[in-house]
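Run log // design_07
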């Protein structure tokens, strides 16, 4: 099992890869049976479903970026962080700024098994 420092490092890497739209590397961080739950984009089960959602999201918001100030340990396998997301919708150019809370649950081996965004 990874410690909290290692889990925070993995969470920071996940956010950095997301900001860089590095889908291939994000997917490598996910457990094959990972789940994704978001009030804004819906619920997805498994790496393949999450990949499709993220690819569509990055296409819809080609400049999306997440700013995170602090990563907190919730329990022995969970990190959460508040974020501010900024993006422009590709089709309309409408600028979006949204705050939220994201929680990443990890397997003992350090793969992300659950992502919850609120």
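design_07 sequence
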């Amino acid at each position: 099992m990874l410690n909290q420092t290692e889990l925070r490092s993995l969470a920071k890497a996940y956010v950095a890869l997301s900001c860089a739209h590095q889908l291939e590397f994000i997917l490598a961080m996910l457990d094959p049976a990972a789940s994704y739950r978001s009030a804004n984009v819906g619920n997805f089960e498994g790496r393949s479903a999450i990949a499709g959602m993220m690819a569509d999201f990055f296409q819809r918001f080609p400049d999306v970026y997440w700013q995170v100030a602090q990563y907190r340990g919730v329990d022995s396998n969970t990190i959460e962080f508040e974020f501010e997301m900024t993006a422009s919708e590709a089709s309309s150019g409408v600028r979006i700024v949204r705050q939220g809370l994201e929680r990443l649950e990890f397997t003992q081996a350090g793969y992300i098994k659950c992502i919850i965004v609120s």
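The chain is about 30% helix and 45% strand.
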